[in-house]
Amino acid sequence: MRRFLTHTTILPVLLFSFLGFLAMGYHPGAEDDAVYLPAVKAHLNPTLYPHDAAFFLLQMRTSFFDVWMADLVRMTGLSVEWTELLVYALSIFLIVLAAWKILCLLFEETSARWGGIAMLGAMLTLPVAGTALFIADQYLHPRNPATALVLLGVERILRGKRWQAIPLLAIAFVLHPLMGALGISFSCILGLVLHQPFRARMRTWLTRYEPNPREATASVSALVLIPFGWAFAPPSKFLLQAMSTRHWLRVYDWTWYEWIGDLAPLVLFGVLYYVAKRQGRQKLSLFALAVCVYGIFQQSIAMVLQGPEVLESFRALEPMRFLHLVYVFMAMIGGAYLALYALRGKAWRWAVFIVLFYGGMYLSQRQLFASTEHLELPSEGSRNPWLQAFTWIRENTPKDAYFALDPHYMAAPDEDYHSFRALSERSVLADSIKDTSVITKVPELGQLWYEQTQAEEGWNHFGRADFEQLKAKFGVDWVLAANQQTSGMSCPWHNDRLSVCRIP
Fold this sequence. Notes:
By secondary structure, this protein is mainly α. It is about 60% helix and about 5% strand.
């Protein structure tokens, strides 16, 4: 038995986890890691971020991720950088392993199982409709381990060991409340669909096309409230302004192709329910039904929350992100059917599949992070001029330094959306990109964010006098700016693009 598990489980899981890791790359400190990585570092060293810790710690108040990661760093004795890389790699491995275990319950054919995890490994950075999500992120986002735990919980439910799913889903919830809540919602629906008496009632409902109040009550009980009390308060003008910059929060403004990405998977799972049933794949048919019911249920909730103005604050809860799990299952099952009916065990077809899918996703990631190394490993330097500046600042400026820089710096052509706070480990005035997203979760910071970003407007035309005004108003004493902006200041470091200077 042990040999069987080693050769038929561990080998394909390791293989496609590794290929998926190579295709998606690794970019610590990028995008949402502007919140998570500084939070971990602040727990390890409370002297960091004396001026702006609220811009990431308040968002983490509903999660234990940062605390647990800091504890893990202390226990292992490794650096933050190596610990995060190892947990990131482990998360990818566990996502693929959980997918394999689910596929083993849905398909008897070994080739289908290989195809399912092969497709999932290739599609880890597949965009999820209009939600601004990938299936997995290119850095250690708590959504990655939470996804793995949710999938392991789903496997326990499919195996009939429902009680074992509870601790897995609970940990997923405290790591990432939204993903955990959606995982609990799906798991409740899956448990009901697999329950024989419930299926009998559902067949009656489908036959009559009439709603059953008891079933509706059972479905509603699957909705888990996310512990963001501010969503129940009237939205401030700052929250509304921040949300207006986030297209994915306004589902009624989605484009036609985003709507296709939303609705098509639900239709496909509805079709799969009947196809699998005719093929005699009873468990797969029920699983497809559960995904379809979950999708319709969550879509209905999202459409209600995104509708009336009185519920406008709830948009920031991002209810359309229920599609994340749907896309995970779509990649798994789509790959399984591709292996059964197209690849058919032919080595050359598998080779073409791997080159096209993994190679294609690799190329897409190289375009997304065009100015940065594909694998930003802890021991490697960077050719990116922004990351060079962040490294020098981290190693050469006081821990209580307070910086000003372009509020749109993350969108600079060669910056690749890396976070100053996460990588320089220094305080900085609010920005107009990532901190805007923070305000949608922490509206109490709205006025401070607005004042700082407004004071930085017109940054490209700033010179010494403007930097001195920022110092007088907010207390900043350092600046990272383009070389041509730093005349008349003491600048101990520069490269071809940027200078690090003291504000007089």
